[in-house]
Amino acid sequence: MAYNKKNYYTRIIEIQNLTKDCQSLGMTNVHIYKTYILPHYHISKRTFDEYLGIPAERELKKLKEAENNQTKLFPDEE
Fold this sequence. Notes:
The chain is mostly helical. It has one domain (5-68). Helix content is 76%, strand content 0%. It contains 4 helices and no strands. Helix 1 crosses helix 2 (29-41). The protein is elongated and about 50 Å long. It starts with a helix and ends in a 5-residue tail after the last helix.
């Protein structure tokens, strides 16, 4: 698993985008998993299926907004 949530969601988005691109070419999820995902990401089929169901872009956007709000609470004083 990734070190933090930002990296975790970024990795999921990579996998989701790769899957979308391959699906548009007519490949099945099993073929995509065996050919592209397993050799590069080393995750199980179950994890791959779970990643496809996670709204990663939305969650990453929430994390970035929370990070921006956190930095606004403590502005740099010069």
